[in-house]
Amino acid sequence: MDAKQKMIAIGGGGLVLALVQGFLIYSQRSAIAGMREEAVQLDGRIAQARKTIGETADLEREVILRRETDEVAKRILPNDDDILNFVRTLREFEEDSGVEISQIRDKTSSSSNRKKDESDFEKVAYSVSFEADAFEMLAFLDLVESHERFMRVPSFKLKAAQRDEYEDDPSNARHEVELEVETYRYSPRAGSSRMRIDGYERKRDLLATEISARQREMSIQTYAYKGHRNRRDPWVDPRMPANLSAGDLVLSIEDQIRLVEDLVARTQEASDLLERWKNASNLIADIEARSVLETSLTALEEEVRRVEADGNIRFITAQQRFNGEVLDEIDRIREALAETDDQQVPIAVLEKAVETMRNHLAGGEYELALDAFMGVEGRLPGAERDPQRRPYVEQLEQYRHMARTVLEFAELSIDVRGIVDLGGNRKVALINGKTFAPGELVGPDLLLTGIESDQLSFVYKEVKLTRPLSQ
Questions:
Q1: 421: Cβ–Cβ under 8 A, 6 or more apart, which residues?
Q2: Which of 118, 397, 398, 403 could join 366 in a cystine, given CB atoms 3.0 to 4.6 angstroms apart?
Q3: CATH, domain 84-186, list 3.30.70.60, 3.40.1110.10, 3.60.15.10, 3.10.180.10
Q4: Residue 180: which pLDDT band, with cuts at 50, 70 and 90?
């Protein structure tokens, strides 16, 4: 092989090698590009996984909270087994409130096109028709509101009684009422499974405070309905036929009888409260019962004074009941209270009152502190004369003074516009458009004692108090 052929062979071989290397490089570049694309996808999956992991804790927390509150929901909502008790409960409401139910209609089954909730709780609705006066209807509603099972009244219709139906006795007016009463029954959806959460008990314990808060929000609040309490039925025509008045009577005979009956009932309530106070089982019950009795008796005496001043009771039978069952009984209650107040109040009662007021003051509950004082106020004059009990009386009066002073101080008009530093530890405050230095009177019984960066200090009626500058 001559030199030319060698050169051609070498050139051809080099070309082949170059082509092979180029192919290999191209193949590697394609592989690298594919790997880069896979890396990008993997980064995306990693980011999504991290996001899921980050949301898992919040999701577990919400699931735990819902599970624990669902247990409360199950207790306050009937299931399929005891939904029939719901109708029995409405019948019990009828007996307790005095309404006369004529019909209970199941509106749930009649709603064929009703869509089932996308939850485990299904609405149940009943239409209840009855006759009642205004206060019997309110008593029925109070039973609905206060029952341990959750119920609501989304709507109602009322047709007031016609005047000719109750003209002889307005207290017997019977209105036609139709209420729609709703509740929910617990009906778990088929096919749903309960997810397992690792360390459920430990995580639940960590959420105990929030779980308790949510459970309290779901609990049924109860209130005591006080009855008509001398209110009139707003759906009864207040006008009375002229033939019910005789001579110069201010009120008709029927109205006088009803007025006295109401006063007799309220007087009997006061008598019952007196017995409840006498039979109080502990110190707290003693203080609370005395406070309720004083409040009820004071309101009753005010109403009696108004009736006597108006001279509305002239019918002889009504007068006799008014004098014997109202006035004489009120005098008896007051005498019983006076006899007890003349006796030495137990030191334990005074100690409990001092402790109660101290706790209220420490918690910033100044009005409750005054209420606690009122519970024993009527028994303090006799205790003040005893050397052993006098310190407790003085402490109670001091606490009352503090509570009253703080409440009065909160109502004072103190407009603080700023503080001026005069140097040398001297400061003045611009209050109500004037400058005041510590030791100067801002108003009657109000002495400025200190100026700090965030508050002013005062002495008001011998009580040290502060007012933040933000106020």
A1: 427
A2: 403
A3: 3.30.70.60
A4: very high
d(CA 189, CA 170): 53
Mean pLDDT of 105-125: 64
Largest CA distance in the chain: 159
- 182 touches 125 (CB < 8 A): yes
236-258 burial, b at 16+ Cβ within 10 Å, e below that, comes to beeeeeeeeeeeeeebbeebbbb
Is residue 158 over pLDDT 90? yes
E-assigned strands of 9-106?
100-106
CA atoms within 13 A on the CB side of 47: 6
DSSP 440: S
> How far apart are alpha carbons 313 and 373 in whole angstroms?
37
Mean pLDDT of 249-264: 82
Beta strands in 30-106 (DSSP E): 100-106
Q: What's the topology of domain 412-468? A: SH3 type barrels. (2.30.30)
DSSP class per residue in 148-166 = SS--EEEEEEEEPPPHHHH
Q: pLDDT tens digits, residue range 190-213?
A: 555 666 777 777 777 777 787 777
pLDDT, tens digit, for every residue of 19-75?
767 666 766 666 677 777 777 777 777 777 666 666 667 777 777 777 777 666 666
* Residues linked to residue 156 through DSSP beta bridges, in sequence order: 179
SS3 category, 120: coil
Task: Break the chain into its structural domains and give their ranges.
Answer: 84-186, 250-340, 347-410, 412-468
* pLDDT band with cut points at 50, 70 and 90 for residue 129: very high
